Amino acid sequence: MSTTLTEPRTERSARPRILRGLNWLFVRQHRATLLGVLALVVVAAAWILYQHADMTQTLDKVGWPEKEAPQQLLGRQYDYLSTLLNAIPVVLAVFLGAPLIAADQENGTAQLATTQSVTRGRWLATKCAWGLSVALLAGAVLSLCFTLWWKPYHSVFQTTWLEGSIFDNTGPMLPALCVFLTAAGITIGVLVRRLLASMVVTFVFAVFVQVAWGEIREHLAASRMVSYPLDQDIPGRLSESYELDRWIGSADGHLYGWGSCAEATEKAMDACLKEKGIVNNVMEYFGYDQMAAMQWTGAGILLAGTALLTAFTLWRVSRRPL
């Protein structure tokens, strides 16, 4: 008598997925872009942290703050980093925002996805939420790293805090710029409907926004005025301020242009000052303590723009076929 032993057959259980549905579809479809953004953020953050350590060592060697910092060396380190960070929002807009919907429209996968069990609005909302979240996270990580690198040593650099290379890359400004330009790229992709054309238009738009933002920056807060005697140096408390304009003024508050009494001889200049009653230097400026409020105001404007662009994109897609 023979017996045959058979082991019970067990079905291999599928591994549970962390992401399901449209979330899984987004990550699967855009995994190359997501990995590229992740690599960019990791490399940029590592570079910032390395430069921070290198600058700290350099300043310790020269005995800063008791001794003057080597401006040429520090300026070169800063220029490289600021150029990289200024390019991050444009890169995200062109390579993440513009292709997000335009690639699906051009390849026909948008129609395929929206004829399945999900609505067109839900499909688009999921893609926009993922795209904007990735841009926000990338900008926030790099802004945090750069802020920690710059803020303790801000007095070392000759670049003032209101210039774009500092103001737009620290605090909430870099995440807000990344999100706004990515949203603009998504909207442009929906309107243009062609991948390459959307990327080109988005690049031009992103560069225009960064140039135009430089004109808006000085209107984010009310400027201050200060007067001090004509024969004295600028007060030490204004050493970190951003100067907008400068005049010379009389005791009754009347202002004259800086070169109003730029006479050929000292005697003639003194006579001009006495005749006009000029006794003060007058400076219009932004204080360093205004920086945070100005950044949050600017970030609020950009985030409001992001909300408008996203709402328009959702409305557009709900009204017209993909």
Could you explain how this protein is built, in words?
This protein has ten helices and four strands. By secondary structure, it is of the alpha+beta class. The protein folds into two domains: 228 residues; 66 residues, no CATH class. It is elongated and about 85 Å long.
Describe how the helices and strands are arranged.
Blueprint: H1 21-29, H2 31-62, H3 71-107, H4 109-114, H5 120-150, H6 164-167, H7 173-192, H8 195-216, E1 224-229, E2 242-250, E3 255-257, H9 266-276, E4 278-286, H10 291-319
Antiparallel strand pairs: 1-4, 2-3, 2-4
Helix pairs in contact: 2-3, 2-5, 3-5, 3-7, 3-8, 5-7, 5-10, 7-8, 7-10
Search tags:
disordered N terminus; alpha+beta; 322 residues; 10 helices; 4-stranded antiparallel β-sheet
